[in-house]
Amino acid sequence: MNSNSNNSSTVALPAAETMRAALRQKITEGRLSPGSRLFDKVLAEEFGVSRNTARDALRLLTTDGLVVSIPNSGSSVRILTPADIRDIYSARRLIETGAIAQSSTASDELLQKIEVAATQSEQYVEAGDWNKVGTSSLSFHRSIVQLTRSQLVDEFFTTLAAQLRLAFALMPDESVFQVSWVGRDRNIANLILSGRREEATSQLIDYLNESEAQIIDGVRNTMHSRSVMDGAEKAS
């Protein structure tokens, strides 16, 4: 009996991990927005797994800071606060600047990923596909992080990127927000690829500081608007 139980756990865990990765990718691609309800029964049917496995995946996403679960109320995609944004950007500054410092010993393959990601963002801007601009911008910054050649750091940033996408979604107009960063991504890419690491780091820090401030303002405006709407509904 114990043996069967252990085998069941062994099978369920990879299934939950796979489901977690798929849902995290949906968030990163902007296909699951903040506040979206997540029902284990619906997810189990979508992924062809048991409801227990779906619950395990939701628990993993809760640990990732991407989902909130309330007893007897269910789960939903997390809505970030200004404090969450500050925490995310503190981590970004530490990881991305450290990655640039390691670019001198990076392989041609890793450096090429930076060029490809920057070019892809530019192509999506030309096509006016703002959802993909946001996704490719995150891919660009992940390509910088991959200069660390650390699987642990890359996995951590993959979750951080999903959290960032939730932050982007709270901006009043994501297209206006995204277009301002693509040219700066290109400048940072060119500096890294030409070995001008100090300049790349300086531009990246300015970029992250400005991005953080804009997103915090956007989140506060969204929170204020929702508060006003809730107040109006209660008054009526």
From TrEMBL:
Organism expressing this protein natively: Neomicrococcus lactis
A Pfam family: GntR
SMART domains noted in UniProt: FCD (SM00895), HTH_GNTR (SM00345)
Record has Oxidoreductase as a keyword: no
Gene Ontology molecular function, alphabetical: DNA binding; DNA-binding transcription factor activity
Protein keywords: DNA-binding, Transcription, Transcription regulation
Family matches, as CDD domains: WHTH_GntR
Coiled-coil regions listed: none
Sequence ranges assigned to domain HTH gntR-type in this UniProt record: 13-80
Lineage, opening ranks: Bacteria, Bacillati, Actinomycetota, Actinomycetes, Micrococcales
Protein name: DNA-binding GntR family transcriptional regulator
Key word Transcription present: yes
